[in-house]
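Reminder: ligand-aware prediction takes two inputs, not one.
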Amino acid sequence: MTHSLFADMPLTRPELIAPDTFLIPNLAPGPDGLYLPVNSMVIRGREPVIVDTGAPVHREQWLEKAFAVVEPEDVRWIFLSHDDGDHTGALFDALERCPRATLVTNFFSVERLQLEKPALPLARMRWVEPGGSFDTGDRVLQLFRPPVFDGPTSRGLFDPKSGAMWIVDSFPCFTPGTLEADEMPQELLAQVMPALSSAISPWHAWLDGAAFTRHVDAVEALGASTVASAHGPVLRGERLDDAFDRLRALAGVPVTPTPGQELLDSLLAPTLAEAG
Ligand SMILES: [Fe+2]
Ligand SMILES: [Fe+2]
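Here is what comes back for the chain with fe (ii) ion:
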């Protein structure tokens, strides 16, 4: 069943979203005919950077799309935002096909990945913490802790030269197909983004409003003009302002319930009816 649903996904292509910065999109099935974005990014500067490597289900499409934007032998950096499976899908392919690339990650990602993947090449790594940066020749990329996240190792990336930010699992939202927030129904963003943010970071219910606002403000103050994420549309201008406001509003409010047995029953009903 899963295979055929994935086979029906609309075709997506790499999109230039900021100077030198390409979104590498893929889609997964979502509810109500909507799709879940599963994006990554490529920065094509003097020393090209791959930003995350997609999900295992999209491995082949990811390789095709990423290397349509940059030649593997030119890639000098692979930035891994965190060790979750949907960000490491083509990690080993990328390391193999990009022999000049250094993997930017951190101690705890490596510690966690060693439990589920073959050994990573320590000699090809650089470990950078939030607040740190790395120089890619024509720009210095800055790491920060994303506003909300579903993995403790998560680090976002900001490029002051292009104004583009990779905010990892923050700002998730199902989409009717477009990857531009301006083209999406605004009520969809208003309803789904907070609900999915709650799903990935249910600890928002325990947050102190003032402390969390300081954290969100600090990310916003980096001054990004284009914000891309793994599971949501590209945000700019007013849509971006709204998204930061919705995040701040999550502090201390109850968790949004996720669908339960009723949804499973409704998904299974056609199959059971056929069998019966
Ligand atoms: Fe994640
Ligand atoms: Fe993710």
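The longest strand covers residues 140-144. The mean pLDDT is 96. We will return to this case in the review session.
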